[in-house]
Write a structure and sequence with these properties.
- By secondary structure, the protein is an all-beta fold.
- The chain contains no helices and 27 strands.
- It is 0% helix and 50% strand.
- The chain has four domains: 68 residues, Immunoglobulin-like, CATH 2.60.40.10; 59 residues, Immunoglobulins (Immunoglobulin-like, Sandwich), CATH 2.60.40.10; 69 residues, Immunoglobulin-like (Sandwich), CATH 2.60.40; 83 residues, Immunoglobulin-like, CATH 2.60.40.
- It is rod-shaped, with a radius of gyration of 44 Å.
Length: 313
């Protein structure tokens, strides 16, 4: 008679690439007659058989005197997960999606996640283990987050007219190409006039990005707004040259010189305006030099200003 089955489970899984042996208990009598029927052949009198190469049904019969025990198992080949998540570099602010690209398996990430994919925002070493019914595979990879592209401005920025530098700049990763609408290819430019400026950045890590800013220039504190030309042609439009004052002065001097250094106009009145004349006569169309000396009333700060103005008819 046949004894109850108990040597093996009904099915025995083997992971691809692994070895598996079917082993009978050591307690079986050494004189027992053992017969294996395998998918390939029949083998005799061995308690251990290699089932790695051939899948299918394995049947074993053990005869110990009058006792006959028979058992069987079906050896099934299980696919071991196999994938490669490469080391990568991503731009700061852009998440990296680590994806083994096979939803058949169960996953366990070192972050504690158990989802098929993992969204990563931080630099670090990561690993994931895939499980296909006991066949395990672990892959390790590294993610580096590059600094990204940072701009020194928002949508609008205001500079004082007197500021010598009115910088607009971008902070970029190595290997990034920069192009401003001014034609500059440097990381930083100086805004010379009001208007909208844009900058285009290109890099393998962060891709292509456009940023823009509206620049506004204004007179700050006791600054003076001084035009660079006027047209004294008596049409009541821009007929006078004078600075636009922003505060009160305890001392004020406004003087005009011709290109040879001759003084042709001077006043200490903050309301003084040059009409383009010298001793009642219209001056020639030319470039003239102005000099303004002032002492701020509230702070007693002394400031000297000079420059050129074009007289145009």
């Amino acid at each position: 008679m046949f004894g109850q089955k108990g040597y093996f489970a009904d099915t025995t899984g083997i992971c691809s690439g692994d070895s598996i042996f079917l082993n009978l208990p050591a307690s079986i009598d050494k004189k027992a007659k053992i017969t294996w029927i395998t998918p390939r052949n029949i083998e005799y009198n061995t308690k251990r058989i290699n089932a790695s190469k051939y899948t299918g049904k394995y049947i074993v019969t053990v005869v110990e005197g009058t006792k006959v025990t028979k058992d069987s198992t079906v050896v099934m080949l299980m696919q071991k997960p196999n994938f490669n998540i490469r080391d990568t570099v991503v731009c700061k602010g852009v998440s990296y999606l680590a994806d083994p690209k096979d939803t058949r398996y169960k996953y366990s990430w070192n972050t504690g996640e158990n989802s098929p994919r993992l969204r990563i925002d931080n630099t670090g070493k990561y690993w994931v283990t895939a499980n296909n019914k006991g066949c395990m595979y672990t892959d390790t990879f590294r993610v580096n987050v590059a600094p990204g592209i940072q701009v020194s401005f928002q949508n609008e920025i205001t500079f004082c007219l007197a500021d010598e530098q009115k910088p607009l700049s971008v902070k970029i990763p190595t290997g990034t190409k920069v192009l401003w609408n001014t034609g500059a290819t440097t990381n930083s430019i100086n805004a010379t006039k009001e208007g909208r400026y844009w900058v285009k950045t290109e890099s393998k890590v962060c891709g292509t990005r456009f940023d823009s800013v509206k620049v506004i220039l204004k007179a700050c504190d006791c600054e003076m707004m001084i035009p660079n030309s006027f047209t004294p042609n008596e049409d009541n439009k821009n007929d006078y040259f004078y600075p636009v004052l922003q505060c009160d002065y305890s001392y004020y001097s406004f003087t005009i010189f011709d290109k040879w250094g001759n003084q042709i106009y001077t006043t200490n009145s903050t309301n003084g305006k040059w009409d383009g004349r010298f001793k009642g006569n219209l001056c020639e169309e030319d470039i003239y030099v102005y000099k303004i000396e002032s002492t701020e009333k509230s702070t007693e700060k002394k400031v000297n200003r000079s420059g050129r103005v074009s007289l145009i008819r």
